[in-house]
Structure formats: C-alpha cells, structure tokens
UniProtKB/TrEMBL annotation:
Gene: tolA
Organism whose genome encodes this protein: Klebsiella aerogenes (Enterobacter aerogenes)
Full protein name: Cell envelope integrity protein TolA
Protein's GO biological process: bacteriocin transport
Leader sequence segment: 1-22
A Pfam family matched in the record: TolA
Amino acid sequence: MLNKSPLVLLLFPLLLAGCHHHQPTPRTAASATEVDDLFASLPSSKPSSRATYARQIMTAIRAKMPDSVEYPGQTCRIRLSLQRDGTVNSATVEKGDEELCNTVVAAFMQADIPAAPDDDAYQTFKNTSIDFKA
C-alpha cells in the first residue's frame, strides 16, 4: 500500500499550479514609449568627448614617462595650458613631489597630444590642472 504523506498531499496542488503555462501580456508601443521617456534624462553610456580627450592626453603623457614604479606613493598636480591643436603652451607644477613632478612636466613637453575633438573638450582642457599619482 502507498504511504501517503500529508506534506506531499498538501504540496501536490501547488506543484500542479506551478506547471500552468502563463501567456505574457504583449507590450504595446505606448508602454515602450513610456519606458523610453523614463530613461530620456539619464546620461548616455557613450563616453563624452571630454572623457575621451582626457584619456588621450593621459595616454600621450604616460607614453613619454618612465615606469611609475620609480616614484612609489608620490603625487603631483600640474597646471596645463594647451592650444587647440594639442600643442602644450606650458606645464607648471602646482604641488607635489619634486622628482615625479619634474618627470611629468618633461613628459608633457615631449608628448604628442592630439588636437581637441571639439570646442567643448578644448574649453575644458585649454587651461586645467591634472593630478598624477605614481
């Protein structure tokens, strides 16, 4: 004879209900538009021209610097003045460790910094401070 556990008898209807196939409600164009409107004010995942240009500047500087392992824990803030075409007008030390700062200034003066991609990026970086941390 079968041993009918009360727990199995109680769970059996739940198991059957879980197997029921539910048809999803189709999304309408109106609901998709409403969702799009919710996210319209959020910033784009596409990097801004300023962020892209900042990476290009840092890449150009790092290419002219020796390994930063030589300057463990040192920091430096440089005031950078650029022309629209990427030419460095000046790179001056604002504060930081002298050894690292001298290396960073020399790297700025030798770097091949590309032209700013647009006026927004140029206005941001034509006269700015950049922090370095070894």
